[in-house]
Amino acid sequence: METGSQIEPISWIEIDLGAIRHNYRELKKYAAPNVEVFGVIKADAYGHGAVKTARVLVEEGAKVLCVARAEEAAQLREAGICSRILVFGPPLSGQAVALLGLDCEMVVCAEDHVEAIVAAARVLKKVARVHVKIDVGMGRLGLPPSHALEFIRKITTFDCMKIAGVMSHLPCADTTDRELTSKQIATFASVRDTIKTAGIDVPCFHLANSAALLDFPEAHFDAVRPGISLYGQLPSFEVQARPNLIPAMSMKTRVIFVKDVPAGTGLSYGHTFVTRRPSRIATVPLGYADGYPRHASNKTQMAVRGTLVPQVGRVCMDLLLIDVTDVPDVAVGDEVLAFGRSGNTVLRPEVVAQQIGTIGYELTTRVGQRLQRVYL
C-alpha cells in the first residue's frame, strides 16, 4: 500500500492497480488476436493516476497510450514513460514543437494542424507521426469523410510527416441505437477502403471506444481504444456485453460523530431532509470539495459495517450525513464506503452515478485534491 503522506487520512481514495491489470486482460478477450488494445489514460487516467496506470498497461503489453492534451503527455515523459503516446487534441504551434520534441504522435484534421506540425518538424529536423481524424458523426473534431483522401494525399507530400493512423470516434456506441452506430462504422470502413484503393500506406485504422470494443466487433479494425472500462466501469447500462470488470477506485471515509435525533428533525442546509422516525445520524468528513456531488443530496446510499444506508440532508463542502438507524453499534471511526469496494461490499461507481443523474466517469475524474490516494 502506498500513500502520498505520513498522516493517516480520514477520507481517502483507494486505487487498485491490480484491478486495472485485470480489466485490461479482460478487455483483450473481446478483441481479435491481431487487434492492438491501446490504453486511454487521459484526465489522469480518469482520476486513477496516469503515471502508475501507464506503467501497469505497458507491463500488460499496451503499445500505445492515449491522452487528451499536451500537458498530459509531458507528465508521462517526465515520469520516464517511453511508450508511444498519442495525443487526441490537435496541437497549437507551440505545442507541436514540444510534442515532437517529446516524440509524441499527434492528431490532425485541419490545414492549421498540418502547418504547425510541419513547421515544428523542420525546426527540430524530425519526422512527425500523425493520426488523421475523420468525423463520422461526433461533431467535435475531424474531417468530413468526403475530404479524407484529399487531405491524406497532401500529408504524404511532406517528407517530415508520416501517417501513423486514421481514426474517428463513435458518439452513440453505448446506446440502444445500434443502427446509427453501424452506419457510422460503415462510413469509417468506406474511408479506409478508399485510402487503401488509392495505394496509400496507413498502418493503423482505429475507431472503437470501450462500448464499441464490447458490442461492435466490426468496429475493431486494427486497434481499439478502451477508456472507462479499463477502470472497471461499464460505458453505460445499455451496453449489451457484461465483461467481468472490477472497479479500480474506491472512495472511503470514516464516521466522526454520531447522534440520536427525534422524528421531525431537519438535517443539513435547507432542511431538505426531515426525519420521519427517531433516528441515529452519523456525520462523515466527505463533501463536494472532495468530489462527492452536491446534487447527490438525499439520493444515494453508502455502506457502513457491510450494510447500505441512505445519505440524508444536503451534501456540504466538507461533511455529509448518513442515516445509520438500522445498523447496530455504529461508532466513531467506522469506515464508510461512498463507492467502490470494501470487503465483500461493492458499490459500483456507475450505479451510484446513475442515482445522482450523472455517469461514473464524472465521479472518478472530479475527485478533490485533498483526498489522499492510496495505491494497492
Q: Can you tell me about this structure?
A:
Helix 1 (17-28) packs across helix 3 (50-59) and helix 5 (93-101) packs across helix 6 (111-124). The protein contains 11 helices and 21 strands. It is an alpha/beta fold and 376 residues long. The chain is elongated and about 80 Å long. A hairpin with a 2-residue loop joins strand 19 and strand 20 (345-347). Strands 1, 11, 12, 15, 16, 17, 18, 19, 20 and 21 form a 10-stranded mixed β-sheet that branches. It has 2 domains: 17-231, TIM Barrel; 249-375, Lyase, Ornithine Decarboxylase, Chain A, domain 1 (Beta Barrel).
How would you briefly describe this protein structure?
This protein has 376 residues and is of the alpha/beta class. 28% of the residues lie in helices and 24% in strands.
Helix content: 25-40%
Backbone CA Rg: 24 Å
* Assembly type: single chain
Q: Beta-strand percentage?
A: 15-25%
Corresponding CATH architecture of the largest domain: Alpha-Beta Barrel
Assigned CATH superfamily of the largest domain: Alanine racemase
Please outline the major beta sheet.
10 strands, mixed
Task: Give me the count of strands.
Answer: 21
Mean pLDDT over the residues: 95
Count the domains.
2
> Class of the largest domain, according to the CATH hierarchy?
Alpha Beta
- Report the principal-axis shape: elongated
* Low-pLDDT segments, ≥5 res: none
Distance between the termini: 5 Å
The number of helices is: 11
Secondary-structure-derived class: alpha/beta
